[in-house]
Structures are given as C-alpha cells and as structure tokens.
Amino acid sequence: MSVIEPTVTKKFHDTFVENNKQNALQRGVVKNGITASAQNQSAEVNNVPVFSVDLTTGKVANQKQSGRCWMFAALNTFRHKMINSFNLKDFELSQNYTFFWDKYEKSNYFYENIIATADQELDSRKVAFLLATPQQDGGQWDMIVSLFQKYGVVPKTAMPESSNSSNSRDLNNYLNKKLRKDATILRELIASGKTTADVQMAKEAMLGEVYNFLAISLGTPPETFDFEYRDEEKNYHLDQNLTPQSFYEKYVGVNLDDYVSVINAPTTDKPYNQTYTVEMLGNVVGGKEVKYINVDMTTFKKLAVAQLEQGESVWFGCDVGQSSTRDSGIMSLDAYDMNDLFDIDFTMTKAERLDFGESLMTHAMVLTGVDLIDGASVKWKVENSWGEKVGDKGFFVMSDTWMDEYTYQIVVRKELLSPELQEVWKQEPTVLAPWDPMGALA
User: Fold this and answer.
1) Which of 167, 206, 201 minimizes the C-alpha distance to 183?
2) Which residue numbers are catalytic?
3) What is the pLDDT of residues 292-328, one digit of tens each?
C-alpha cells in the first residue's frame, strides 16, 4: 500500500485553485448542494406526464416513515381493481393488517433459520447475515403473496394505520433486539443437546411474546368485520361478518398463482431464460417460494406493456434513488448531469452496478400507464406510495432508458409469457446466495 505524499496533494490543490471553471462550480455547489446544482430542466421537458395508455387508479397512498413500499404496491394493484369493479372512491386496503402478519411470520422465519444454522459458527457468513438484520420492513412479491394466501386482506377501516406502522423505526429496533436475544437462547438449547421438541416449545413461547409485542404496537388483527361504504353514486352498501379470507375472495378475487416474477439481471452468473430463487429469502415458512425468470430487457418491457394494455397495473421493483427527482417526480438518466459537474465519468453498465454493489432493488411501485409511439415505449407512468406532495400528486414519470438501467423486477400474468418461457418457468430454479443482489428487499 502506498501513502499519499504531501507533494501530490499540493499539486492537486494548486491545479484546482488555478482553474476558474472549477472555482465557479465550487461556489454554486457549496451554496446549493450537489443534486440541486446538477439538476437538468430538460429531464422535465422530455418527460411530460401524458400517456397513451393511462389506467384509472384513484389517489396515491402514503407509506410514511416505513419501508412498506412492496406491500403498498401490491395492495394498490388490488385497490385499482376494486375501485373499477365496485365504483369506490378514496378507498384503501389495510397496510397495517398485512404489516402485522409480515412481522409475525418474519420472526418465525428468523427463528427457523437460526435453528437450521445452529451447527455453524457465529462468524460464518450465513449466521452473520441472519444476525445483521433479523427482520426489516422490506419484502418481495412472492413474500406478499404468501401473506395474502394465508391471512387474506381487510379494508383500511377494519384495521387503520397505527403510529408504529407509519413510523416503524422503534418497532424494528426492539423487535430485532428480541430476535437476537432469542437467537442466543435457541443456539444454547441446541448446543446443550435439547430435543427438537424442546427447541420448538421454546420457539413457540418466543412467538407468543412476538405476537403480544405486535398487538400492543400495531393493534389486534380482526378475525371478522363489516364492510360498509358508499360508492361514487352515493349508494349505500353493507356486507357483514366477513373474514379477511372471505373478503379477499369476494372483493379482490385475484388468483395469485397466475402471476410470475420477471427480472432483468444482465450479469454473467444469471443467464437469460432461466429461473432463480434466493436462499433464506422469505417470510412465511411453508409459503410461496421466491422465484424469478430472468429475461432480456426487450422481453421485460413487452410483458409490462401487454399487461397495461389489457387494463391491469404492474407491480415493479427498481433502484429509485438513482437519477430521480423527488419533488418533480422524474426518473430519467438526464435528471442530473454529475459527469459535467465534477468532470468525472460515473458511467457503469447495469451488470457492473449489480456486481460491484452500486445498485440493487430498493423500492417497489406500480406501473399505471405507458406512452407508446409507433408501438415502442418512451416513458412510463408510476404510482408511488409517498403521498401526494411529491411528483405529480404522487405520480412519477419514468423514462424508457431509466427503466432499462434501474428497473429489475415486474410481476405479470403467467399467460403473457411466450410458450417457450412458460416451459422455462416450470424448471427448478437455480439457488442464489442469500446476499445476492436479486435478494434485495424493496
């Protein structure tokens, strides 16, 4: 390793102060900040929020200070269907209800993984991976499917938001404290030779404490409830004594087994037209396996367009923090010009960003429209879950080239896949390591 010699730093300093252009840039950036100084107005001009395919969705929701975007996005796709089917206005499904069961199931999933890795040293990569974040707010599409299939859904009126679902930092902090403490107990029980039955009995007691913790923090999930509402024509409706499962069947009615997760990961370790899963990625033990089919970007976008053209919105995952503006809601490669600002080439390929940790899926939203010119997509309408004060009343515009670079996953109906890809889907997936970027939680 070589040290930085003072003479080298002096050379850099002298060169900088003698450069009038860099001094002018310095004044602007020091005063206004990096992103504000690099922002391009042309990105807004080139991404006007007008779309040839534009679905009816209602108002956007707001996940507030929580990482529940994946769950909001999935519930929003159901909400779009219900708004159109039942002529609803300003309707939302309960995100708090789904949040409760996700935390409960993730705790059990963590316990089971701790038990399964009890023969490994604490500093093994898998055990360290588990203990680094026992659970968190984020998730994947197949994880939300597992929750819906086991617990159903309820309207927001049946289990409204709570302080701790809207701002989940304290809940996560103390739940993870408990899970790590419980991990020490489970590993000690196994190391001392306790039977499987004894270990499971101890785990069940721990789960009981988790349930109480969640009920105190989030409220008690309803077992039955009434659904009372007025539609857009002011007609009154009352449906009594529903369960979360019967509500799902009657009002949502989506067969989630008809949908598949499609990814675009152009890295050499993931050849296209093959299926993949990620080890230790999930929430519901015995639930739906996380599974993807990897395709090229042309196929990826054609599938999204096909579903939108048939009137159905599309759940998708992306790296929202890359080259996007929160206030104006523009996701475009020219949103900022950092290369010119610093005279540094920041360019990397999509594969390089995945391989070297520069990018992964960080956020899930919903595609609700697309602008097609001569049959080709040029920009996309995006429903976010950050409330109406960002973007265009909560909606963002994503350029087609931004989608190429920073969108990683969509969920579409299996029937939209070509016959060849439907056959590929039947294959057993290749298992990726727990820390693979495709295992990132939105």
Assistant:
1) 206
2) 69, 363, 384
3) 999 999 999 999 999 999 999 999 999 999 999 999 9
Q: Report the half-sphere exposure of 378 (CA within 13 A, side-chain side).
A: 12
Query: Percent of the chain scored above 70 by pLDDT?
Result: 100
pTM passes above 0.85: yes
Which tens digit of pLDDT belongs to each residue from 188-222? 999 999 999 999 999 999 999 999 999 999 999 99
Query: How much is the pLDDT for 48?
Result: 95
Q: Give the separation between CA 407 and CA 156, rounded to whole angstroms.
A: 30
Provide φ and ψ at 46, rounded to 5°: -85, -5
* Distance, CA of 155 to CA of 228 (rounded, Å): 10
Alpha-carbon gap, residue 331 to 43, rounded angstroms: 8
pLDDT tier for residue 90 given thresholds of 50, 70 and 90: confident
Bridge partners (DSSP) of residue 230 are 236
Q: Where are the domains of the chain?
A: 47-439
Decide which of 3.40.50.12370, 3.30.1510.10, 3.30.499.10, 3.90.70.10 is the CATH code for 47-439. 3.90.70.10
* pLDDT computed for residue 5 by the predictor: 97
Cα 52 from chain centre = 26
Q: Which two tokens stand for residue 67?
A: 């990482």
| Residues paired with residue 317 on neighbouring β-strands, in sequence order | 364, 409
Pairing of strands 274-278, 430-432: parallel
Task: Give the integer Cα–Cα distance in Å for 235 and 281.
Answer: 45
- Name the amino acid, one letter, at 356: F
Cβ distance 319 to 365 under 8 Å?
A: no
Angular region, 286: left φ>0, alpha ψ -120 to 50, beta rest: left
DSSP secondary structure string for all residues of 209-250: HHHHHHHHHH-PPPSSEEEEEE-TT--EEEEEEE-HHHHIII
Strands 236-242, 395-399: pairing is unpaired
The per-residue b/e assignment along 320-331, b for 16 or more CB within 10 angstroms, e otherwise, is bebbbbeebbbb
% of the chain exceeding 90 in pLDDT? 99
List the beta strands (DSSP E) in 304-374. Answer: 314-318, 324-325, 330-331, 363-373
d(CA 66, CA 79): 20
